[in-house]
Each structure stands twice: as C-alpha cells, then as structure tokens.
Amino acid sequence: MARIGFERLAQRYPGSPHYALRPMDMVWEDAGAYALLGPSGCGKTTLLNIVSGLLRPTEGRVHFDGQDVTALPTERRNVAQVFQFPVVYDTMTVRENLAFPLRNRGSSAREANTRVEHVAGLLGLGAMLDRRARNLGADEKQKISLGRGLVRGDVAAILFDEPLTVIDPHLKWELRSRLKELHRQVPVTMIYVTHDQTEALTFADRVVVMSEGEVVQVGTPEALFDRPAHSFVGHFIGSPGMNFLACAVHGREAMLPGGQRIALPRAYAPLPGRVELGIRPEFATLAREGLPVALTRVEDLGRRRIARVELDGQPFAATLPEGMAVPAEPCLALDAAGMLVYADGRLAEGEA
Fold first, then answer.
1. What is the model's pTM?
2. CATH number at residue 258
C-alpha cells in the first residue's frame, strides 16, 4: 500500500504549447479509493500513466510514501494495472491466470493457491477456477484481470483504466458493487479512471474531477453534488446537471437579464467577470406561484419527472412533483438552500 503525492506535477507533450496536465499539488492517502472523473481528453489517463510509470512527467515529482519515484519504471513501483480490455492468458485456467503474478515473484504453490482461492471467492470465480479462460465471457475475463491485481498482498496501488468499458450494461452494477466491497476487505490504494459519473460516485470515497488538463475539484460524492467548486462540476455531476442562470448579483439579490429578481441566502460583494446563479433541479419545483416560466417539455425519468422550461429566456430544468398536473401558467419555486453563486466559473463564497 502507498500514500501517493504529487509535487507541482505537470505534463506537456512535444510540439504542443498547452499543458496536457496543468501543474498540481495533491495527496492520495494510503488505502483510499479514488476516482479520476472527466470527459475524454481531460488528462485523467495521462495522470494515471504518470502514477504507473508508463509516462515520465515533464515537470514536478511523484512520491510513494515520501520516496521520489518520478524516474522509476513501472516494474519498480509495485503497482497493478487493470485496463479497458482484459489481459488474460486464454490457454491457462482461471486458477493459473490468478496465480501468475505470485508464481513470477517466487511464491510457493501452496501460498499462491491459498491466496488465489481467497480472491476468487471475493470475485465470484470460485466455481470456475479450473476452467480454461478462452471459454469465458468478457465480464468473467475482466474479473480475472481484477483478481490478478488483488492477489498480490504487497502491491502499492491498483490502477483501473475504464475497467467496465467492455462489460454488458446489466453486469456493470454488479461489478461496481463488488469492487466497492473488495476495497473494504482489501485495504489497498485504488485509483479508478472513468468518464462515467455513476461509476465514479459509487466506487470512490473521493473523486478527482478533471477538465482540460486541470483538477477542478477533489471531494466526496456528496460534496461534489451539494457544493460544486466549479461550474464544470455542477454541469458534469448530476442528471440532469446544475442549472446556471446569467445574472447580476447585488448583496443578497440576483437580477436576471429580463428583470426578474431572486433573493439569495447569502450576501455577496461586487463580483468580477461572468456571474451566474447555480441551482440543481432538485431545489427547483414547477409550481403555480413563483417565477413565471415558459414550459418547453416534460421528461419522464421513471422515478421522477423533469420539466424543461425557459426562465427569462434561459433554459432551466426543474422537478415536477409527483401526481401534479402541469399548471396552465407554470411558475418556478426555488429553494434558497440550493442556491450558489459563481464568478467566471468559480464558486463565490459570500457572507451569511
């Protein structure tokens, strides 16, 4: 296990004037479960490759338990990696696949078998240990890849790079839940790269949200949802994401471009740049009284309905209460507890 630290870490690729990974300082605690979350091209795989040693950063340092490992190759960092597409030896049995990293490190047959049977039980592979891997499905092969990382008791960290990409959708929930339970039973540092917010929020204790090579927020799933530090996090987390209304803020009041006013729970000094009021659909309800809106459509999401409206000409998503018919003259009722103010995309604190 390892405590992983980054000191002014950054990455530029040859010929590019821009950072693929912008300078950062960060620490991932020993035995933590972390997710790197963001859209394609945001820098999350670059960061994972730097941690693993597949890529040497152009700036800064990487530390494992206080030791500088920036120049160390992958094999000397003692990390296990699980990729999008499972790497499995088809001619071997499940047992032989799982035991492979142990036998390579000189473990006895008895020690390897004990460890293999324990990990196979955790992954639900116990009944197929003596089957050839070539006859297994993609989900079972990915479990073997997971198992090869878990079977090593001395591993510093396990790195997952979009590990559920090839898994059937109805099996993803099972594997996500199993990974979470595995982390509770096998306390090793785990880093999980994904573009899927559901995977990140259900697996990780702390999520690292990335955009355009920058870490924009690190926090618990609850913190990312309740108090996004950046407008990108508000957009990216949640389904639908946070609403953002262009406005001017004066003290405890937000004024929309069309003249409608919204009382705020906090007072704000004059704010520079682009100012927006952020509020999630969970804190906005379609109602018969409140801010008048124009209804565009209603989306039935199964457990709830979302009303798509325009407020002062700006698109907005609100919750339609269960059993409520759409009012003839729809309005919005906003819960002040969910209102946040952003200046140039960054959360503005304000005063109570």
1. 0.90
2. 2.40.50.140
